[in-house]
Structure formats: structure tokens, C-alpha cells
Amino acid sequence: MGDMFWPDSTQLTAPFASCAHTTDVGLFREHNEDALHVNDTAGLLVVADGMGGHAAGEVASGIVVETVEAEVVGKGCSLADAIFAANRAVLEAVHAGRGAAGMGTTCVACRVHGHHLEVAWVGDSRCYHLRGGELRLLTRDHSYVQTLVDAGMLDPSEAATHPERHVLARCVGSKALEHGDIEIHTVPIEPGDRVLLCSDGLTGELEDGRIGEILTGHRADASAARDLVNEALVCGGRDNVTVIVATMG
To answer: Spelled out in words, what is the top-level CATH class assigned to the domain 16-248?
Structure first.
């Protein structure tokens, strides 16, 4: 992949007051299957967490961030249409012999529209919104464990330690994925609000309360992003961990 998908950290300007992003392979994985993309001009942020093993997961996640960027910025498509196009692109890549059969990825993407933030996602990569010290989760995991929680068969407090917590109910790169499976949420935003996009390498190690503490404890997006990743590593670092932190202008 090019540097667009594997940055360490960078500062940007409008429509964000600032933005930083960091990714790390973690302590136990041999390679990084996460990908990310930031387009400051379009106000677009994307995180994808690939799966499928060596030379496959990172192919799927790279295809997704490339396709979402091309569809949203190049063609003016909605986030949902862009993610659905990315699903087709992953399937076509497998058919063409790129990557490996069965590869897939999560995707969470958000875009600023004036005074609103649109979020679309598939899988368990997440988007959070921070205002006035209050952290709000904007996404809902598409995971087997979340379906149990939604059905009242599992207490939410047990979800974080469930042995099948990483099993996805939906992913990009699936023939079964339908357009309606791509969830969309829109929230009003104000200057100074913060947005966090992350892979489950972060949320699998840190509880939401701790994530909120780190975000509110740092004025600079770069130091917040760096400390989020570092603490995830200290707490176990069992997976690739990727974060984007952006402050609204």
C-alpha cells in the first residue's frame, strides 16, 4: 500500500480544526491488516479492519478505503453507495485473483456536511462523538455478540469478554451484503466537537470510559491519537490498532 493508507500521524486543516491518525501492528500480529484514509478537503474519514490472513486482509481493507474515496470524492456518491461499491470491488478482486478467497473487512466512514456529520459502517469498527466531555458511540457493532445483546440473550457487561466477540455478523466483501445492511447515522456537530474513528484493536483493549478520558485529557489530536494507541498496546495489544481523531473547525 502507499503512504496514504499507512501513515503514522499527521496534522491537517479545514474543514477540521485539526486531525491526526495513527496505526500500529500490535504486539502479536505479524502484519497490519488495518487501513485508513483522510481527505481533509472533502471532510472524509475512513477506517477499515481487514480479515483473511496474510496478503488478504490488508488487500481488502486497502481496496475499501481506495474505493470509498473514489466514489465519494470522485463521483459524489453517498457513503452508503460508496461502501456498497467497495463491497463489489472486493468481490471482483477475489474473482481476478487479487488477495484470497474469503477476504473481507469492516468499514466505518464519516463525512462532514455543513453542520452535520454523516456516518456509515459495516462491521465492528467504530465512530465516537465527543462534546463537552461526554463521549457518545455513534455506531452499533455488526457482530455475533451484539446480536445476542440486542436479543436480550447476553448482558452488555459480558460482551467485552465473550469468546466470540470478534465474530462479525456483516462485513465488506460478502456476497450476502445488501445495501440496507449498511447503517447510516447523522448527527449535528459544532466547532470544538471531536470525532474518533477506530478499529476494534482499540475498543477490544479500552473501555469507552477510558477512551473518553484520554480524548478529554489532550488538547492536541496528535497526542490523543498517540496515547490511545499506546494504552491499547499496554493493555494487551492483541490486534492491529488504528485511530483517527478529528476536531471540528
So the answer is: alpha beta
